[in-house]
Design goal:
The protein has 217 residues and is α+β, with helices and mostly antiparallel strands. 22% of the residues lie in helices and 36% in strands. The protein contains four helices and 13 strands. The strands form two sheets. Strands 1, 2, 3, 4, 5, 6, 7, 8, 9 and 10 form a ten-stranded antiparallel sheet that branches. A three-stranded antiparallel sheet has the order 11-12-13, with no helix packed on it.
Length: 217
């Protein structure tokens, strides 16, 4: 009988120890860094939707609605002057709200290495990035309470040390930003600053380069 009690006590002790180890297994992983400077220092933050105030949510919702579906995103790009080929499709990597550190602002002309791997449709595996491809940033800005768009293009790069894809973009301010890739036959189309196609993939899979008849670009 004494032996049974001893075994029961030892078993209970082991179970308690196991539960204690599980409860204090270690700190939860930190949120990924949203953006850094050239030296790898964190300079911007990604703000979660639930942490936005009502006014910020309203502005974010208005901007994000333009990229809620591939069709909405394509319409938005066309309205901004993008000449999308008929057989292309628009892929929204993610729409994120950014601020400077601790909710502050950034200095105009700040170069930011945006972490592309943390974007929703990249993190969940829906879209695979490739170094050298073009990514388009559509930045929602508000002038006198009205929505305006600032479009920037950048090249996808791979940071082997950090294990992430990123893009370097010069920004004057921050707010909601949509990250876009335009695909054709499985490859990313590149555009110039006027929204004209400068490189794409033909139906045969060969890359073609298109020159603007107006500018020669």
């Amino acid at each position: 009988m004494k032996m049974k009690k001893l075994v029961a006590m030892l078993t209970a002790g082991v179970l308690c120890l196991g539960m204690s180890v599980t409860a204090f297994a270690g700190p939860s992983p930190k949120d990924p860094i949203a953006g850094t400077d050239a030296n790898g220092n964190e300079i911007v933050e990604n703000v979660k939707y639930e942490d936005l105030n009502p006014a910020q949510k309203a502005l974010y919702d208005e901007a994000a609605a333009h990229f809620a579906t591939p069709e909405e995103a394509a319409t938005t790009l066309k309205n901004l002057g993008y000449q999308l080929p008929k057989d292309s499709n628009v892929v929204v990597l993610g729409v994120e709200e950014y601020t400077g550190l601790k909710g502050g602002d950034i200095a105009p002309g700040t170069k930011i290495n945006f972490n592309l791997s943390m974007l929703e449709n990249v993190a969940n595996g829906k879209q695979q990035l490739r170094a050298g491809d073009q990514v388009t940033l559509v930045h929602a800005t508000y002038v006198n309470g009205k929505l305006h768009w600032e479009v920037k293009q950048a090249t996808v790069k791979w940071d082997a040390k950090a294990g992430i894809f990123y893009a370097t973009v010069e920004m004057d301010s921050l707010s909601p930003i949509a990250f876009i890739e335009v695909m054709q036959n499985g490859d990313v189309i590149a555009f110039n600053s006027k929204g004209e196609v400068v490189s794409s993939t033909s139906a045969s899979g060969k890359e073609t380069v298109k020159t603007s008849p107006k500018t020669g670009e």
